[in-house]
Amino acid sequence: MQKDKSHDFSKAADTYRQNALVQRHMAQSLCNLAGNICGFNFEKILEIGSGTGFLTENIVKIFKYNKLVLNDITDNFTGFSDLEFIKGDACSVDFCDRYNLIISNACFQWFCDFESFLHKIKKNIARDGVLVFSSFGKQNCCQFKKIEKTGLNYCDYISLLNACGYEVLDFEEEIQTLYFDSVKDILRHIKSTGAAVSASGVWGAERYKAFEKKYRELFFDDNGFALTYNPVYVVARPR
């Protein structure tokens, strides 16, 4: 099952495209990686977690295909209304068909049971097919984890894929740091992208003041207030 991000993401959809700079970069990098390793021609492609269309745009531009199917737990915000769209939780939807490329950008970290999904999706990967995805590593938004001891739990994708019967063809990782003028700007950025990294509960004035003070002490320099992203890219296939 996916964590229910549909409500938060629906509210953030209008501002997501303007603020999700790292996710936009990841979408392009992911398609380039898939093409360099697997080629640029696929008969059938399934995109999981299509969101506002960052990855969809790159798929349409970079790959040649006969069929492209989009999926998301939310409505279709991609702008590609002419493409087949399957709304629903990817962990429970029966995709029926078999695809030469199943691809996803910055989505799988939301899955509550990614291991079960990996077993489930195998039947939808064609004999020569691959699973290609980007997500985030353990250093993602490390500033919040340091101060608030909270955030998503990012898994060891290589170990999990191996345990689920996949061969990892490629794994790449990078660190990207964004800088902001204030901690409030960071919180606005996080809200606008729908990311769930801040602590739960009510943020009163005293709690925010303490958080801002600690953030300034630990993560402020001449560039501003730092926020770290840790994108990872994976190409795998069932053994």
Plain-language structure description:
This protein has helices spanning 6-19, 21-38, 54-62, 114-121, 142-148, 157-163, 183-193, 205-219; strands at residues 41-48, 64-72, 84-87, 99-105, 125-136, 166-173, 176-180, 220-221, 224-229, 231-238. It has two domains: 6-139 and 152-177 and 228-238, Rossmann fold (3-Layer(aba) Sandwich), CATH 3.40.50; 179-225, no CATH class. The longest helix is centred in the N-terminal third of the chain and has 18 residues, at 21-38. The mean pLDDT is 91. It contains eight helices and ten strands. β8 (220-221) and β9 form a beta hairpin. The radius of gyration is 18 Å and the shape is elongated.
Report, as a whole number of angstroms, the end-to-end distance: 24 Å
Structural class: alpha/beta
CATH topology description of the largest domain: Rossmann fold
Top CATH class of the largest domain = Alpha Beta
Percentage of residues in helical conformation: 25-40%
CATH superfamily of the largest domain: Vaccinia Virus protein VP39
Which H/E pattern describes the elements? HHEHEEEHEHHEEHHEEE
Number of helical stretches of at least 4 residues: 8
The description of the largest β-sheet is:
7 strands, mixed
Task: Show unreliable segments.
Answer: none
User: Strands of the largest sheet, in order across it?
Assistant: 3-2-1-4-5-10-6
Rounded radius of gyration (Å): 18 Å
| Record field, number of beta strands | 10
Give the count of structural domains: 2
**What fraction of residues sit in β-strands?**
25-35%
